[in-house]
Amino acid sequence: MDRETLHSTSHGGTDDCTELAAAFLAELKRYCANRLRTAVAQGVIRRGMYSADDLTDEVYLRVCRQAGKVGPEDLDRVKIEMFRTANTLLDEIINTESVSLQGLNIGDVLRDELRALEEKYTIDAEGELIPYEDLDDISYQQEKEGAELQLLEPGFEDELIKALDLEESVIRADDRFRHRLASLYLNLPAMSRILLDLSTRGGLTVEEIARVCTLETEEVRQTITLVRRHFHAAGLGRS
Fold first, then answer.
1. Do 84 and 120 share a domain, yes or no?
2. 200 near 163, Cβ under 8 Å?
């Protein structure tokens, strides 16, 4: 059943879940697309295996089937449920990530990640610790060997620079700094990266993220603050 079929068989007017969901489908799709793109970049899934459009449609259908008759006052509840359902589906798809969140206490996972973020290292795909300054050596070696430097999608790169208060002129001046930004992002601990994605691509507030992920608001705020410091400590922040 596609969106049009669902819409035609559900309640009409402003009490229709489909009308409410339309207000933030674009943000939901951007969030899903970014997590899938990251999984491809990390080698977790093959390119083209999953579509952000299909995933967003599945979330849309699941939530609106279960929501029943709703009104404008339910907009916030529907929004949270849409992102929560998207997270569940994405975690099912990306079930070979380095940190599996299935069956674990998210708060405990996050506390372990916060300790890791306070170190002056990042972690590569093989789980090895890499000092920040060595990221440039890695990108230099890739460049010398003719390998393509791994960079983020430009629109998302812009969002990260703004959200994390990074020095745009430094990053734009040299693709090595863009590579460093991409490496730091892709090697973030799994849950911390999800919270950052919900904030940037999903456009959610700290309070909304906490509700989607069943966390305390202060845990989310502290994580995003530490992620920002993590990028600044790597030489990408404003001086």
1. no
2. yes
What are phi and psi for residue 213, nearest 5 degrees?
A: -100, 5
Number of domains in the chain: 2
User: Which of 49, 71, 93 lies at the terminal end of a domain, its last residue?
Assistant: 93
User: Would you say 59 and 85 are in contact if contact means Cβ atoms under 8 Å apart?
Assistant: yes
Under 8 Å between Cβ of 93 and 42:
no
Do 39 and 147 lie in one domain? The reply is no
* Same domain for 159 and 65: no
Question: Rounded to the nearest 10 degrees, what angle do helices 25-41 and 175-186 cross at?
Answer: 100
Looking at residue 141, what is its pLDDT? 46
Range of the domain at 71: 3-93
123-148: burial string, b at 16+ Cβ within 10 Å, e else: eeeeeeeeebeebbebbeeeeeeeee
100 occurs within a structural domain: no
Residue with tokens 């008759």: 69
Q: What is the CB neighbour count within 10 angstroms for residue 8?
A: 10
pLDDT, tens digit, 9 for 90 and up, residues 86-114:
999 998 888 754 444 455 566 776 777 77
Q: Cα separation of 199 and 192, whole Å?
A: 11
Q: Are 39 and 97 in contact (CB under 8 A)?
A: yes
